[in-house]
Amino acid sequence: MLALPPGLLAGLGPLLKGAWDLWAKSALLLAALACAAFWLCARLLRGHVPLPARPLLVWAAGLAAWAGISAHAGPLAAYAVPAWHVWLGALGILLAFPIMAERERRLLDQTLRALAWALGLLAVYQRFALDLALPPASLLNPNIFAGAILLLLPPAVGRRDWFLTALLFLCLCWSRSAGAWLGLAAAVLIVHRRGWGPAAVAAAAAACIVVIAAKAGTADLRDRWVWWGAAARMAWDRPLLGFGPGTFAYVLPAYADPGRPLGSLFAHQHFLETAAELGGPFLAAWLAGLWIILRNGSPSRRIACLAVLVNSLWDYSLSIPAVLWLFCGTAGSCLPRDARGRDVPARWRLPACAAVLACAWWAGSSVWSRWQAERERVQAQALIQAKGPSQEALDLLAVSARRCDHPETARLSGLVEAALAGPGDAGRLQAAAAHFERAVAQNPFRASTWALLADSYSRLGREDLARAARERGAAALPRMRENDKG
Hints:
2 domains; mainly alpha; disordered C terminus
């Protein structure tokens, strides 16, 4: 039973586009939470609950709490809280391994082996049946697929599963990711300083470095420098808590070069992105804990994790939920089994079960409400596209906001109200302005929302409020200041 939550997240997540969509992420987290709560209640009723070693438990709980504070205290909680849930799932996977029975570990290992076969065979189908030169399997793109392969290939070699090894090796070749090859070569050199043909591996690493250096003058590398610089400035401005997990893309407009605005969902650098989103202390504790976990693992598992970490110096595989979960599943397998636990007196078993179920219900309702709120917002968007702005769409958006407010919901509500407002319809224009105010309060880094807010005030004849809105937007976004100067 304890293998089910990690199996769902790490084994099934990559097959659902890396759990990138909120529905997939939410469904997997809810299923994993339900399984974990059921297992814990079963152990409580038996009277004995196995626990991870105290240092691991304190480390994981500290990271979870720090990420939660960062998510809720940052300026973009609507985007940060779902990303915090992803981190909770990742840390939960690590906590499960020390208390997992050997047969459950073997079951989880077979699940990840089946995942590797599924991804590899799907890539073969895409390559030859669909004629895709760079097959992504079930993930978003070939680079993310390459990151997943780095976590699956070394364990296949360690098991001497040569058919699967050949298949994954072929898929890695198809990805054409010099960064992934360099990560793999560097990891092998770090773990196997003797043996495994270190000279040949060093030559392969040097070849990868040459290929990457050849891209020094290309737009690809120049863009990365922009994103890395922005992430570094974000981390400098909020060094303790960052802007919240998963918020890099939404804060980027405030740090982008006004002369060369360049959007990106990720910083393409796991360490800088983590520091920008969660703060320097979180990054330091995360890496220190990983070093302790990995140092006693099997060579193949250490190579897999180190390869992804090296590759994450310029790529973003670990920003994808399912790849992060798969990484934690691979790292967690390096933890030794710890049979220690705590006995539960008979009089406390039922109350403890009730408390576990109540906590699971509370945590699950947070995930569920955000999923449902997005579903209703998407329905409203579809209705607007099909029939134009309408009161029906506004009603759907109002239901979505009551479930869980979001800047996109507020912005879309403002757009519909403004579109429905006729000449002299001050009521709808005031409602539109109120929605836009709510949107900029939840996401102050979107220039177009500030412009819509100022326009609403101008249509109301309140030029003083319109000017104040533009000034507030310019304070949040350097690009708006540059445009005002121009």
